[in-house]
Amino acid sequence: MTKYTSVIEVFVQVKPDILALIWGPIKLLLQFADSLSKSFDAILDTMEAIGDKLPLFESYSQLFSESDGVVDALALFYRDILDFYGVAMNLFSAKHWKMIFESVWSRQKDTITAVIRNIERHCLLLNEKINLEHITEAHQSRITQLDKCQQDLEYQERQEFGQMESYFSPVLYDDDLDKLLRSVCDRTGRWLEREKAWEEWFDACNTSARLLWLEGIPGAGKTHIASLIVDRLRQLSSVTLFAFLSYKRANVNIISILHSLLFQLVIGDKDFDKAVKKNLRATLFDKFQSDQRNLKSNTKAARQTLSELLKLAGPNYIVIDGLDEISEIERRTVLNELLEILRDSTETKLLVSSRAEDDISKLLKKSGPRVIRVDDKNRGCIQAYVSAETQKWLGESEFEKDIRSEIMGLLLSSLPAKSKGPYVSLNVMYTLPTVCSPMKACFFTRR
């Protein structure tokens, strides 16, 4: 490759900036790789293989001024070298590339082999009478080979992901989120924007506010607020992992939660960076191949793997709702592991939504959380919800307009002004048909 460079220098001596654009990146790769011996050796081995296939350009230097075909062939070699450069730079430009090098570099073997084969074919052009048809055919062949490598790699990644998904069978909470978002009224959660604790936690650049606790009595609307927070984060393309825990869901434990968060991360959202997703999946599959039994059932192994992947993902948010709904022993384990992730992954932020149970309070307060008491803020949202549902029900009833207005007033006036939870409100909603049947008879009797 050194001889190749010397010939190119002759060819571009009138425009030395071209050489810098083409050859400079190769030197940059070596500077990157020098900080890790394994990557440095891998880059050198690949460059040596490429260099071995390059022809003796010294013998062709006199032909540059005589043959446009030789110049066109030379351009193909440029493209070949830059193809290799592109593969390597995509890896070295990844965040924490040292952590993923071994998992990702091996996957590029077929692409690099294709580059070397392209160089071999392009060498043959210099030994033939070169014309435009030859150059066009070689250019198209190069594109076809690289496209096939990319398609094969994508197929391999899909197969690997399917294998992991089948083995772990992770529980995702997307259906729960959708159901919750469909049940909230328009006014729900507007007060959140005025909360300093929320503003500080929401700001990814604010590293002092990484733990937020949504605390409140049963039925205060914590879960609906948590669902709105998840939706808000996802709309802004933030890396957001979440779980809505419930006593109704069987087999909820720390392992199932960690597996859910792991797979949410590697699945990503529609706007998730594709290169980052590929690196995350490659790293997870590497862990899966080397230690799948521990990854399946060992809490520490699963937690450490999640922490490692979160570091690769950049700024991210974890939202856990309903922690108080699982057993005390299990929630203590869950919270301890989540707080350990928070300590280990410095770009992670955690939100916990729960009642103020003693064990939860003690663990959280040791980590200095920002706290928002939901039942003090959500009263207006609950009353708005009851009003909307009552109007909807009455609109479908047979009452006349003036009677519907009177019923609405009677029902809403029965709600305690200082109600902090929806139990009274829900009782109203569930008993509407029962209450209104005799009420209907009463109104008709009066008329």
Structure write-up:
It comes from Penicillium cosmopolitanum. This is NACHT nucleoside triphosphatase. InterPro entries: DUF7708 (IPR056125), NACHT_NTPase (IPR007111), NPHP3-like_N (IPR056884), P-loop_NTPase (IPR027417). The structure is a single chain. It contains 18 helices and five strands. It is of the alpha/beta class and 447 residues long. It has three domains: 2-167, no CATH class; 174-375, Rossmann fold (3-Layer(aba) Sandwich), CATH 3.40.50.300; 380-446. Strands 2-3-4-1-5 form a five-stranded parallel sheet, sandwiched between helices. Helix 11 (254-267) packs parallel to helix 13. It is elongated and about 95 Å long. The termini are far apart.
Which key terms come to mind for this protein?
disordered N terminus, 18 helices, five-stranded parallel β-sheet, alpha/beta, elongated, 447 residues
Strands side by side in the biggest sheet:
2-3-4-1-5
Question: What is the radius of gyration computed over CA atoms, rounded to a whole number of angstroms?
Answer: 31 Å
**Low-confidence runs of at least 5 consecutive residues:** 3-8, 422-431, 438-447
Q: In the residues, how many domains can be counted?
A: 3
State the distance separating the first and last CA atoms.
Answer: 101 Å
Fold blueprint:
Layout: H1 2-11, H2 16-33, H3 37-53, H4 68-92, H5 97-105, H6 109-125, H7 132-168, H8 174-183, H9 196-202, E1 211-215, H10 222-235, E2 239-244, H11 254-267, H12 274-297, H13 299-313, E3 316-321, H14 328-344, E4 348-354, H15 358-365, E5 370-373, H16 379-395, H17 401-413, H18 423-446
Parallel strand pairs: 1-4, 1-5, 2-3, 3-4
Helix pairs in contact: 2-3, 2-4, 3-6, 4-6, 4-7, 6-7, 7-12, 8-10, 11-12, 11-13, 12-13, 13-14, 14-15, 16-18
